[in-house]
Amino acid sequence: MNVFESFNLCGHAVTVVIVLSLALCKSSSHTMPSSSSPAGESSVLHGDSIQFDLVPDIVMHGSVVQVSYQCSRACEVGVEVVVSTQTKTGAVVFRRRWTNHRRLHVPRTHPVKLRFPPDIMRRTLDVHNVMVRAWLDHLEQGKGDKGHVNRTSTYNGSLVRTFKVLQAILPSETPARLYPGCPSWMADLMWQLTRDRIRQCPHESDTVDLLTFPMVSTGKSFGVIRKIHPFTNRDLERDRVLTVEQPSITVSIWVFLVQWCGKKLCGIIHHVDQNSKYDTPLMQLTNTGDIIIQVRVVSGGDQAFRAHTALPLWTWIRLDCFIQGSKVTLQVKPEMTSGGMVEHTHTFDFQSDIHYNDTGGYFVIGGGRFMPGFHGYFGPIKYYRLGTEKVINFLSPAKTLEGLEKTHRECDEIREVTAAFLQAVTHNQEVFMTGLCHSHYISLWRRFGQNTCRQAWTWEAQKKHRALFTFLETQPKDFTTGTKNRRTPLYLGRRLFEHVVNRLSNRGSNQMDTTTSSSLIALLQTSSCYGYHHASLLLSTIHLAGLGAPVDQQQGHVYSLIGALGDYRLALMHLGYKHTQGIDGFPKDFDMAYSYYSNVGAQTSIDQGRVLGNQQYITEHILISNEDHLNSLTHETGDTFQYIKLQADRGDVESQKLLAKLLFWGQNGVSKDIGSAVKWYAKSAMEVEDPAAMYEYSILLFKGQGVKRNMTLGLQMLEKAAAKGSVQALNGLGWYYSTILRDYKTAYKYFEQAAHNGSHDGMFNLGVYHLNGKNPHNPENNETAAFHLFLNSSLYGHVDGAVEAAWYLSTGNLEGVSRDTERAVIMLKQICEQNGYLGYIVREALKAYLQGSWGESLVRYALAAETGLGVAQNNVAYLCEELKQSYDCQWRYYNHSTMNYAPHDSGLLKMGDYYYSSSRLGAVDQAISLYSRAALAGSSQGIYKLVVLAEEGHDVPLIIRDRLNISIHDGLDIVVERLLQRCVELDEDEDLTPCTLALLRVRMGKSWRKMTQDPIQLSLVYISVVTLIIALITVLIQSALECLQVDIPARQRRYTTDRAVEDRTGTSPVNQGEVNGNGQQDQNDPIRREDRMSRTVRMAQGVWSILLRDGQRVQQIVDLAVTVSGVCLCVLCTLILHHML
């Protein structure tokens, strides 16, 4: 019998007792002071009585009870409602008290309005009994004039009392609550659709899929963390609680070993409790292939047993672990298609029940914080929380997992073939270099005859790997001369990768091959087998993005996993990014993303100390589509770099520090030169004594980077820098006292000062002291304080701080810190993008673009884009557009860039334009969302796009309205004006922008509407228009008159001159057109022509006289019209400016 059944029996027993007591009371005919009386009967003692005059029979909210009572002296009266449920008896849900001091020995009546809790009225509580009861008791004497109210009196300790049992209402008879208003159309529709639906609790299974997609185990301490929560279903949760000390669970795990455990023990799966101690179960793999299972027994100790399994390599194996009470059974089942191993079972009885609580702590798949994992893969993992006899756990996704096994076996064959080839080539070379004499015939035969077949591989192998042999035969000297490093598989893989990239990029042109031949893919596969996992990531990119080959997600998954297995940073970031976003067939799983990002984060911290490496650069966010970004690059031959160098030579401290930084890190297109950077740091530190330069130079002296190590001089530089106010120097002194002098108290003091002044390194180091219990004021481990310091340091970009804070967020095992894996992933992704190897890939891609090799730039940017780097995704999309690559290539990467947590506005705008021009349903809403995100990121173009959409009738998102203080009741003009004002503020560096012109248009339109609404101002507008028209007409008339004044006198003077010449010569000019067809001149023509000319002259003289007479009047009209129109226009412009401002 369980606890809940006991409670049920107790509840029923109490109910029976109450009913029997009620029956006995009802059968009694006399009243006693200490007994209860039913309703309607009074309880009387020495002149004190109480009874119910009016009481309802059923439970009804708001019903009134009439209580009649009589007091012999000052008394207190009380009424209460008591209910009994299945789990609780005698719960008071209503109580009312009052006192009587004056009217004694007189019967009185008092009404009481009953109030019942909503749970009783709605029948959400299983109520067995409801009782209303009243009592009366005397007040204490000597407590003032009116006595003292005895607040401690109860029903059972009262002088007289009475009660009545009420009938509870059945759920079907509960009166419906009237709704004060009419339901909406949508509410009524939903009710009509769901009124016949039988509501049921959601199905909850005891089977948990811990893994559904393959997971890479790199052999390090970075596994997948899973948290198991209690059941929502009460029955399942009750069964789970009852089996804590008698567990019945089953775990089924698929594993694929590439290498056996490199340490003594490697984790497969383990459980960590709330106290960060190993709990049941702990499954480990030994370096011989055996399995150790450890459990915690009820007595509190830990016990374990070893199963001699000798797990094989390159084979999928399923491990089924059954825990029943004190017995553990392990079944090892290889995949059906694999041979060489049979199924076998191992059973062990610990002779004591096992303690198991899966809701406490967390589970880790693979390596944990204090335990490394094995080198291989995890397949599907199923966990049966309440146990099962039959395990159903198929190998899925089958194509991906089978592809992994097939690829690893092919890689092993390729490595054997290559080793044999290199051995043969090396052997021939060594024989040739021995200096021994050979016969002339043999030399000629070797030169002109057939080559001796010495290879140890079959013809089928040569045919299968013909692309590899073709490449090896073309460059035999490269592998037979020089150091032995040239004959290592890693070197061969790098050479193959560079060869394929050169072929893909098509050096010398801006076009990349539209198709990728099978031979190039085969070479990349070979390069991947050699362990050069740039090729693995490129193969994954080709298959997932369809760059020159059809999309094949299964093959893409295979090479993504293979690249991550090689602990290649970019491949790990690639998997983390895919699982974060849930794209390209990868499930969205923040726990898996955390396992990959945490690995890269830890490596990034180590890589920061390898700044001298040629493949370590800071990731620079330069968009190749942005001319301003490209112009900001300061190459060694550029004017900017030369100017900085000139200023540094002249003694400018800021230029010296900037030049040293550029040369030390190789930023902005400048080649890395550690020696020159150290010289500039030394010059600023020693000559000028700049605090920042002194700190940087002291760190170089401590580490011996670019300069001979000098601890004494480094300490002097640190002390001087700290004295001059360098916060980082305080942290440096703390490091010196902690690491070199082992003076933890002084070190803590410096770390605390640095942390309080904003040093992220100081915050992290102070957190380490709290974590390790080295705080002199509190020498105990304080994980909570350490977590908050780690978290604060991560906000400033501290790599180690982010890694530590993310671990606490992913486990949720620290008190007061809730589990938030998504936040941990976001934090780690930002840190991982600072990795030097990623910066090197981006730098090489930019270098190829600037040199004109756009195809190579596309390939290298694509590698960085697959890690989720936003600037690389935008650059790949731009190159796909410029190189006329596939349509999907362009929009794939623009779309991926918008999925980042802090996307660049260029990708948001591009995708917004894409959806805006699309005719799909809901495309405009998506465009508005993207434009809004760009606007919130500070893009003026995004705001302008929203203005265009708003003017087309679309709603502006609420988040934009809230940011710009725009009410939902504001009209379109106000919304557009506010948006344009914000757009102009963002473009304040530019004089004339589209937003400026649009804002001018909006404000002028607004001013015009205000003016047209005022009759006086509207009249002024009309007057201005009329006077302007009149002025234009009068000006035109004046211009015409001036033309006539010039033309008529000239014609008159010319006619007078011609007449004078004619009078002197007695002849008149003959017009050729006036000669008749017989060649004779008309004798009467001169007379007629003279008459016409005379009339014309007289008419012109009349017009001229009129013009001379009226010219001054026309000029006056013109002047008046221009003046009036000018005045009106000035007033009009003033009004417009007034409304605009």
How does this structure look, described?
The protein has 1141 residues and is an alpha+beta fold. Among the domains are: 49-139 and 157-166, Immunoglobulin-like (Sandwich), CATH 2.60.40; 207-396, Jelly Rolls (Sandwich), CATH 2.60.120.200; 412-429 and 456-566, no CATH class; 568-622 and 835-896, no CATH class; 755-831, no CATH class; 904-1013; 1016-1040 and 1114-1140. It is 51% helix and 13% strand. The protein is built from 39 helices and 21 strands. The strands form four sheets. Strands 9, 10, 12, 17, 18, 19 and 21 form a seven-stranded antiparallel sheet that branches. It has a six-stranded antiparallel sheet with strand order 11-20-13-14-15-16. A hairpin with a 2-residue loop joins β1 and β2 (48-54). It is extended. The chain starts with a helix and ends with a helix. 37% of the residues are buried.
